[in-house]
Write a structure and sequence with these properties.
Elements: H1 2-32, E1 67-73, H2 77-83, H3 86-90, H4 96-106, E2 108-109, E3 115-118, E4 122-125, H5 131-142, E5 150-155, E6 159-164, E7 170-173, H6 181-187, E8 198-205, E9 208-215, E10 234-237, H7 241-244, H8 252-270
Parallel strand pairs: 6-10
Antiparallel strand pairs: 1-2, 1-5, 3-4, 6-7, 8-9, 8-10
Length: 271
């Protein structure tokens, strides 16, 4: 009886050792799949909360290929009819996607020469100008025909594409001239827990494409020239390494249950 009891004791000790090793291994795998809290928090700043980061937001310059919505507002209906084409006068009557398409189809396209062609005014050079400066320039030209007219200029083709580890990837039309990378992340439903906070941005320029990486966990990101987005920007959120290795989809619960059951059976049969 004494020998038998000693044998059972050694068996139980071995089982407990094996079980402890297994639990430690599973726990380490689970910890490896977790993303540290520091890597998830946006715009971190170590200084006082009252500190102010000074920066100048770069103005967007109109370029060939852009589409502008231009309306000339006058005091009398006759002048209004002359300066605005029929499609432009009807744009305000629609809503939603249909109105977006109408603005796109009937807006003024900036040609390769940087000019738009308008009723009465003819060809007007707008490329290289900000929206505000283009508006002033058009108002100066209209003043030669009508006194007290107001010109409204809007950029129609402002859209961005958000891809990668966000909850709602896709292409979005933007109706805000001061749209930032944080706005884009929010519009796409925020990043997932496995989204790398070093966000990649692809920007189209006259010379090709410019690539940049913006660390959105650092509050100094707001001073970057890429913090505010421009038309046709592509935002890509890479997955963290733990997801690329497959830990995010690893069935820890199933493995834990299966191995625990196997060890219990081995222990039972050995007794």
């Amino acid at each position: 009886m004494i020998v038998k009891s000693s044998g059972l004791s050694r068996t139980n000790v071995n089982f407990h050792f094996r079980y402890s090793y297994l639990m430690t291994f599973v726990l380490l795998l689970a910890l490896a799949s977790c993303t540290p809290h520091k890597k998830l928090v946006y715009l971190q700043h170590q200084a006082e909360e009252s500190d102010t980061l000074m920066f100048t937001r770069p103005d967007y310059l109109i370029k060939p290929g852009d589409i502008l919505h231009i309306r000339v507002l006058t005091l009398d209906d006759e002048s209004y009819m002359i300066f605005n084409n029929e499609e432009s006068r009807q744009l305000g009557s629609g809503s939603g996607a249909r109105n977006n398409i109408s603005v796109f189809l009937h807006g003024y396209s900036v040609g390769e020469d940087g000019k738009v062609k308008m009723p009465v005014l003819g060809e007007v050079h707008v490329a290289g100008k900000t929206i505000a400066r283009a508006t002033e320039h058009l108002e100066e030209l209209v003043e030669g025909y009508v006194i007290g007219a107001t010109v409204v200029v809007k950029l129609v083709n402002f859209s961005i594409t958000v891809l990668g580890e966000v909850r709602r990837p896709g292409n979005y039309y933007i109706y805000d001239n001061q749209f930032s990378i944080m706005d884009a992340i929010g519009l796409a439903g925020d990043m997932t827990d496995f989204g790398n906070r070093n966000v990649r941005i692809v920007r189209q320029t006259a010379d090709g494409a410019t690539f940049a990486t913006l660390n959105v966990t650092d509050s100094k990101a707001v001073v970057s020239e890429f913090y505010y987005l421009q038309p046709n920007d592509i935002i890509y959120v890479e997955p963290h390494r733990v997801k690329r290795l497959g830990f995010a989809q690893f069935p820890f619960g199933v493995v834990f249950s299966a191995v625990s059951t196997a060890l219990l059976l081995i222990n039972f049969l050995s007794n």
